[in-house]
């Protein structure tokens, strides 16, 4: 990991991987979509269960993205890891998009199942909304400070603070009495969903995870190039 901290080495290492990761993402997304539409209806939820093949992957990957952002922020703030800040910055926008998609699809599922688009008292919903606000706050903080070094440090602190929210999201259904259903996959007694629903769900989760990886690597590479362009412009301005 520390060997890849060098931007040139990172670019060389990831260059041949990009078409592979993007191709794998497209294949998995196609397979997950096909399985989602061909899966049988749920005996309680009917066709509404198909929303879960988007909602669950979006929510779980959104949590994973913020973990990646927080860990990157830690290395950027404490160890001045050369690529850590770029990685954190590159994760923010995809993370916000995944989390927003989870909230929207959750509302679409909640209306027919709960009879309401949104329940303000539900701990899972509120903590997920807080996660989206952390993503937005991270991006807004970076954009509001002209000095990139100061912006990176301030955003890294906010990124670390936001990590406190992750276990709250994960265990909110266990700690409080909420409308949101408890865990269906990561259970001590095994998944509580049937195999015909589990297969498309796991495929969709893998697809969205690989899709994020492809987007993230592309965004990090783009951020490295952007910073190099800014550095060249600054150097030329000084010489002029």
**Structure classification:** mainly alpha
Q: Distance between termini?
A: 39 Å
Overall tally of structural domains? 1
Characterize the overall form.
globular
Helix content: over 70%
E-strand count: 0
Could you name the CATH topology? Four Helix Bundle (Hemerythrin (Met), subunit A)
What Rg do the Cα atoms give? 20 Å
The CATH class: Mainly Alpha
User: What is the average per-residue confidence, as pLDDT, rounded to a whole number?
Assistant: 86
| CATH-scheme architecture | Up-down Bundle
List low-pLDDT spans.
none
SSE succession:
HHHHHHHH
Main location: membrane
Function: Required for the export of heme to the periplasm for the biogenesis of c-type cytochromes.
Keywords: Cell inner membrane, Cell membrane, Cytochrome c-type biogenesis, Membrane, Transmembrane, Transmembrane helix, Transport
Protein name: Heme exporter protein C
Question: Descriptors for this entry?
Answer:
240 residues, mainly alpha, Four Helix Bundle (Hemerythrin (Met), subunit A), heme transmembrane transporter activity, cell membrane
